[in-house]
Design a protein that fits this description.
This protein is 21% helix and 17% strand. By secondary structure, it is an alpha/beta fold. The model has no long low-confidence stretch (mean pLDDT 90).
């Protein structure tokens, strides 16, 4: 079939009125356009959660992640803590201040075979048991 364009040459709107010939004008827009107006009923029926957010976001001043270390990591890093000034060695026994090192909690994963006196804010029961088993102590 021949095109109708030739017939409408000189006509401003090619027989479509003022707005319907522009882009997606006659169909109310493309994509999700008009969901707040012409598509409101469809949106309420089939896409209830289109607008808005879910739940809430806790303020950053409230959210705090504990910095932790395991018993095995403590033994592995004893020399490093001594070099950094967070620990002292008295013969076979070490005295470590994990609070000054920025560590909040001592956890009990792994093994330790060195007597250590540890100063830390929190400890797990397993860590306390393992430290005391080798002759160390925990100050909270």
């Amino acid at each position: 079939m021949p095109s109708r364009t030739k017939k409408f040459r000189g006509s401003r709107t090619h027989g479509r009125g003022k707005k319907s010939g522009r882009g997606a004008g006659i169909i109310g827009g493309r994509g999700n356009a008009g969901l707040g107006k012409t598509g409101k009923i469809w949106m309420l029926k089939y896409d209830r959660n289109h607008y808005g957010h879910y739940g809430f976001k806790r303020p950053q001043c409230v959210v705090k992640a504990n910095s932790t270390i395991n018993v095995a990591e403590l033994q592995r890093n004893l020399d490093r803590f001594v070099a950094m000034g967070f620990a002292k060695q008295d013969g076979e026994k070490y005295t470590v201040n994990l609070t000054d090192a920025g560590i909040d909690k001592l956890l009990g994963s792994g093994n330790i075979d060195v007597a250590v006196d540890v100063t830390v804010a929190e400890t797990s029961a397993k860590a306390k048991e393992k430290i005391e088993a080798v002759g160390g102590s925990i100050v909270e």
